[in-house]
Amino acid sequence: MSHSHTVGVRQAQKQKTRQALLDAALQLLEEQSLSSLGLREVTRAVGVAPTAFYRHFRDTADLGVALVEQTLGSLHATIGEALAESGDGVRIDRTVALIAELVRTSPAHVRFIARERHGGVQPVREAIGAQLRRFADEVAAAFAREPEAAGWSEADLRMLAGVYVDLMVMTACAFLEAGPEGEEQVSSAARRQLRLMSLGRRHWLD
Amino acid sequence: MSHSHTVGVRQAQKQKTRQALLDAALQLLEEQSLSSLGLREVTRAVGVAPTAFYRHFRDTADLGVALVEQTLGSLHATIGEALAESGDGVRIDRTVALIAELVRTSPAHVRFIARERHGGVQPVREAIGAQLRRFADEVAAAFAREPEAAGWSEADLRMLAGVYVDLMVMTACAFLEAGPEGEEQVSSAARRQLRLMSLGRRHWLD
DNA sequence: TTCTCGGGAGAACGGTTGTTTACTGAATGT
DNA sequence: ACATTCAGTAAACAACCGTTCTCCCGAGAA
Prior knowledge:
The structure is a homodimer. The first copy, chain A, contains nine helices and no strands. Chain A has helices at residues 8-28, 39-46, 60-73, 76-84, 88-105, 107-116, 122-144, 154-178, 183-202. Chain A starts with 7 loop residues before the first helix and ends with a helix. Chains A and B meet through helix 6, helix 8 and helix 9 of A and helix 6, helix 8 and helix 9 of B. The structure holds a DNA duplex.
């Protein structure tokens, strides 16, 4: 008589090992790319039989897109907060600090996205591309709500938002490569880059 | 009694099959990443025995760094020409056109660089990073030669050059993803991005 | 010519891969 | 209480992998 929304011990255990597979894969992907990640490699790290993999994913590419959506999907809410800042200078600091904390708390996720964005697995590439396009849309919408956007064409606004998102991805990669000790240096460089873009934006309509 | 500079049939044949290995690898890497590229896979595509691979490279990672230097090394001369343009607007058109032609004539090389820049093989990542840093240095030197660079700190100039290079890599990736039909659209977007940066550069010292 | 060097061929090795098939047993619905 | 569903197991499969060893034979030096 239990309703469909009750979790049940059964489905809870299933999603538990599913998450274990995702976590193990993410860890293994720190030193290789998805197209070389083996099915057995993942199950061995978790401690389950190789065939158990098929109960959750069709292949490692399928696992990859799940990893993309879990990593980037939960980020839209966080991004919205930083974009709510109206001051141009304050938003720059907020955004860079957000990226820095993201890389600090979960570097493996960031590395995975950076690596597979242009990686060898097509479905994963497309999943990342779609998510980044969603981010750019949200940034463009936030820009459009501001008074500085007056006189801007929609295409130019979309271009500006695209540069903004790409700059943030590049900054995240720079944080990764620099390590914890070079964090402050990357931060200041990123802030200057954003300031350069902000200046260009102010004088766009001349 | 032949002098050391005479090629000889022996060394010519060796570099011939070495180049064949590089070409075959580049073609195979269009649909996968280097960390999953097999030694036998490459030799099979060329038509030589698997053991012949060891006469030229230690492993596939070694082949990767050779591929990086062959791809990016020959580009420094071409870049120098575009940077010689003094006009700010003309240089933008020249640069974007150069990237477009590069992607058109050898897309596999561009895809390889984009894919392995953050890929799973450390030595290759470092080789690409070193080459891109060289590009940024050249761009910074070209900027420093201009009158607009007056009052700029060396660090800010380096930052500007870094953004320039990263923007070009991103543009090359955009050309790849868009395909031949969307070439004009990517070109105009890239030109607007460069113009945005150029505007910010003009008002940097306020 | 004769000797040496070295790129390439061939076979074999132990190990790993993805996938299939049949099976177990505990949580679930009736 | 019983029947069913299904996540996970176990074993086997052919195919592939990187690497080692031995041999071959033509180019280049003597």
